[in-house]
Automatic annotation (TrEMBL):
Species annotation: Rhodococcus antarcticus
Protein's recorded name: CAP domain-containing protein
CDD domains per the UniProt record, alphabetical: CAP_bacterial
Domain of life (superkingdom): Bacteria
Region span, Disordered: 124-143
Span of domain SCP: 19-109
One family name in Pfam for this protein: CAP
Compositional bias segments (type: Polar residues): 125-141
Length: 323
């Protein structure tokens, strides 16, 4: 299956003379898009090709193009491109003087990308096309992962760009959390499970009666039957009982819990603890070195250490903090 993008500035096909030169920047763009397609399991053109070439490709280009293929050896892909008029036009377009090549194999298929440009760059690629040396993939993070739960409780997740395909990973879901390569879910019966890595990885069950779960880096915490338990490290390490609480949230090394509308903050599992004196807290938010609470219709925020004073008080009922 093939798809192609004609050059952004059209040119008449002709016999190639001289041959292409390899562009390190265009190779990086090609490799990253082929890796994104392999992770998503779909085949499509790069909708942000111009912006990607501006960011990572050769500088000063005025004409770029792209050819995309899924499946087949290099010879088969090139023969198919040459048999396709738009792909052949890309290859023979004399406006294009340099190319970048990326090829990534995943789930038994190979995604091959060729980027074309009219300007060369001097640098070597930071990633290498298949056949020219080892390809080191960059693990996807939560920045490249998106989850959604349908009204019927079906959880679907996608990796990479917004145009990538959805993968159903759970049903009967009432809550979920994403962080890095970890995914956690809760169903209506209070059964929770967590997986790490690819969405097809096996689930690891969490103790029953779970009403909430939170994740941050290597840390995982859940509220089960009114008690917060947590672990730090691989999913196989033992759970640690923290405290009785109604809800839990985490950011970086900080863990915050609400218990009887009182907030308890902890630096790590066994680090310094602080109880916020403000009563009647209904919601808690953490971000880097900030803490925010909602009490009634009042929002309060502090910054710095756990003992820092409140630096702002606002009217409101909902609070979101960002780094």
């Amino acid at each position: 299956m093939l798809t192609g993008l004609l050059g952004l500035t059209a040119g008449a096909p002709a016999l190639r003379n001289p041959p292409f030169r390899l562009s390190g920047g265009a190779t990086d763009v090609a490799w990253r898009w082929s890796a994104a397609l392999a992770a998503a399991g779909t085949l499509s053109r790069d909708p942000s090709l111009g912006a990607d070439m501006d960011a990572d490709g050769p500088s000063g280009w005025s004409t770029v193009g792209e050819s995309v293929a899924n499946g087949g050896t290099a010879d088969v892909v090139v023969d198919a491109w040459m048999a396709s008029p738009p792909h052949r036009a890309n290859i023979l377009n004399l406006r294009f003087t340099v190319i970048g090549v990326g090829s990534v194999t995943g789930a038994g298929k190979t995604w091959s990308i060729t980027e074309f440009a009219d300007v060369a760059d001097a640098r070597a690629p930071t990633t290498t096309p298949e056949g020219a040396g080892p390809v080191t993939t960059t693990p996807l993070t939560s920045a490249g992962r998106l989850g959604t739960v349908s009204p019927s409780g079906v959880l679907a997740v996608k990796h990479g760009r917004l145009l990538s395909s959805w993968t159903t990973v759970g049903t009967g879901v009432t809550g979920y959390a994403l962080d890095g390569l970890r995914l956690g879910v809760i169903n209506s019966a209070g059964v929770a499970a967590v997986k790490e890595g690819d969405v097809s990885a096996p689930w690891v069950l969490v103790p029953s009666g779970v009403s909430q779960l939170a994740m941050a880096a290597t840390r995982l915490a859940v509220v089960t039957n009114g008690t917060v338990i947590a672990k730090d490290g691989p999913l196989t390490v033992p759970w640690v009982v923290l405290t009785s609480a109604d809800s839990v949230t985490m950011w970086g090394n900080r863990i915050g819990v609400l218990s009887g509308r009182q907030v308890l903050l902890t630096e790590g599992f066994s680090g310094r603890r602080a109880v916020l004196a403000t009563p009647g807290v209904q919601a808690l938010a953490l971000s880097d070195n900030r803490v925010g609470i909602v009490a009634g219709s009042t929002i309060s925020v502090k910054e710095g250490g756990l003992d820092a004073g409140w630096v702002g008080v606002f009217d409101g009922v909902q609070l979101t903090l960002s780094s």
